[in-house]
TrEMBL record:
<keyword id="KW-0808">Transferase</keyword>
<dbReference type="InterPro" id="IPR015421">
    <property type="entry name" value="PyrdxlP-dep_Trfase_major"/>
</dbReference>
<keyword id="KW-0028">Amino-acid biosynthesis</keyword>
<dbReference type="InterPro" id="IPR015422">
    <property type="entry name" value="PyrdxlP-dep_Trfase_small"/>
</dbReference>
<protein>
    <recommendedName>
        <fullName>histidinol-phosphate transaminase</fullName>
        <ecNumber>2.6.1.9</ecNumber>
    </recommendedName>
</protein>
<dbReference type="Pfam" id="PF00155">
    <property type="entry name" value="Aminotran_1_2"/>
</dbReference>
<dbReference type="GO" id="GO:0004400">
    <property type="term" value="F:histidinol-phosphate transaminase activity"/>
</dbReference>
<dbReference type="GO" id="GO:0030170">
    <property type="term" value="F:pyridoxal phosphate binding"/>
</dbReference>
<comment type="pathway">
    <text>Amino-acid biosynthesis; L-histidine biosynthesis; L-histidine from 5-phospho-alpha-D-ribose 1-diphosphate: step 7/9.</text>
</comment>
<keyword id="KW-0368">Histidine biosynthesis</keyword>
<keyword id="KW-0032">Aminotransferase</keyword>
<dbReference type="InterPro" id="IPR005861">
    <property type="entry name" value="HisP_aminotrans"/>
</dbReference>
<dbReference type="InterPro" id="IPR004839">
    <property type="entry name" value="Aminotransferase_I/II_large"/>
</dbReference>
<dbReference type="GO" id="GO:0000105">
    <property type="term" value="P:L-histidine biosynthetic process"/>
</dbReference>
<keyword id="KW-0663">Pyridoxal phosphate</keyword>
<feature type="domain" description="Aminotransferase class I/classII large">
    <location>
        <begin position="86"/>
        <end position="409"/>
    </location>
</feature>
<dbReference type="InterPro" id="IPR015424">
    <property type="entry name" value="PyrdxlP-dep_Trfase"/>
</dbReference>
Length: 413
């Protein structure tokens, strides 16, 4: 909705009207009535009832289920009665090694914290261009990739529009669609967590959804989308948003440069996993030029903080550190997978990411397993959705974290 020019409506234009003493009382009464008519506040009833704050909330949001985030260290520490350093946190796919030491040094030298950050994140986008091989005009940074997911939906979806979601996957897609008043068409994955491309094609033809959100590697199972599947979906009349939050651990290259060829592709990336900057919230996306102009118009002007940009640039200046951490996590992922296979009530799935999904078997209750491990100071992720009933997900940590997890699991067999 655009702005209203009050002076084009004589019933509410007051800038040129000068009431005299005879009309002043009548004018005040009139202004009061006109002003109150533009605000949806209930009149007081005989019982004195007035509008509740919730009555102003858009109807589709009143039944919205809140997103369930992972609890931070300080909250876990208080609940479990343990020091943060005594908690083995394997529930949020965080990078336990943290950022390069240069990042902390750079953060300590922030010169102008009282000045608004660059609204175009020019230094960061230039560094990302060098890192990815994609020109900076295709790149837009965000307050985490989560902000960009919501921003894309706000730019693309009208209330009532449809998106395709392929569960089990990252639940923010469904959540943000609900926030934006869109309908979610679910095309469940096969039992091996691969995409049902044939069913996606049927849904696109019949339901005419605007966009589809895909994660590769997929969260929570770690499977990847091959080029053949992705190309088949890109040939459909739908906007494809490819979330590559975990691409560094996959052994395959990013598809960021594909946006130069495919006008219906957006690729999202993040510094949370690769660079250990989850707490600073910085992500980025590659967009086709025909679309990015409008995304720029709609984004908040100062969405990436000055410290987030400084930290991300410092991380990119340390590629050797990032590579060494990636190698360490991939190696530990393989060790963790082999150890989990030895647990009689766990059936782990091969992963291309920094986590491993496990089916809990042999009559063991997955939710209780998660809760019992938490009492021992070991945090893993449990799911309540129908697609993942009886599953848990374990993030890859340092070797000592794996050892602590395995020692705790021995209490159950």
């Amino acid at each position: 909705m655009g702005a209203i020019d009050f002076c084009q409506n004589p019933s509410i234009c007051i800038s040129k009207f000068r009431p005299n003493s005879r009309t002043e009382t009548h004018w005040k009464r009139r202004v009061s009535v006109v002003a109150s008519s533009s605000v949806p506040i209930k009149e007081k009833s005989q019982s004195g009832e007035v509008a509740r704050g919730a009555s102003f909330i858009r109807p589709h949001l009143q039944n919205l289920k809140p997103y369930q985030p992972i609890l931070p260290f300080e909250v876990l520490s208080a609940r479990l009665g343990r020091k943060p350093e005594d908690i083995v946190k394997l529930d949020a796919n965080e990078n336990p090694y943290g950022p390069p030491p240069d990042v902390l040094e750079a953060l300590g030298s922030v010169e102008f914290p009282y000045i608004y950050p660059d609204p175009e994140s020019r230094k960061l986008r230039a560094a990302l261009s060098e890192d990815s091989g994609l020109e900076s005009e295709y790149i837009l940074a965000g307050c985490g990739a989560d902000e960009l997911i919501d921003l894309i939906m706000r730019c693309v979806l009208d209330p009532g529009d449809k998106i395709v979601d392929c569960p089990p996957t990252f639940t923010m897609y469904e959540f943000d669609a609900a926030v934006n008043g869109a309908h979610v068409i679910k095309v469940p994955r096969h039992t091996d967590f691969s995409l049902d491309v044939e069913r996606i094609a049927e849904v696109v033809e019949k339901e005419k959804p605007k966009c589809i959100f895909l994660t590769s590697p997929n969260n929570p199972d770690g499977s990847i989308i091959n080029d053949t599947e992705l190309l088949e979906i890109l040939n459909m009349p739908i906007l494809v948003v490819l979330d590559e939050a975990y691409i560094e651990f996959s052994g395959i290259g990013s598809r960021m440069t594909w946006v130069k060829k495919y006008d219906n592709l957006i690729v999202l990336r993040t510094f949370s996993k690769r660079a250990g900057l989850a707490g600073l919230r910085v992500g980025y996306g590659a967009f086709p030029l025909s679309m990015i102009e409008y995304i720029w118009r709609a984004k908040q002007p100062y969405n990436v903080s000055a410290v987030a940009e400084i930290a991300a640039c410092a991380a990119l200046r340390n590629p050797t550190y990032l590579e060494n951490v990636k190698v360490a996590l991939v190696q530990e992922r393989e060790r963790l997978y082999d150890l989990l296979k030895e647990v009689p009530f766990l059936d782990p799935y091969p992963s291309h990411s920094n986590f491993i999904l496990c089916k809990v078997t042999s009559g063991v209750d997955a939710k209780k397993l998660k809760e019992d491990l938490a009492m021992m100071g070991v945090m893993i992720r449990h799911y309540a959705s129908k697609e993942l009933c009886g599953f848990v997900r374990v993030s890859v940590g340092k070797p000592q974290h794996t050892d602590a997890l395995m020692e705790a699991l021995k209490h159950f067999y």
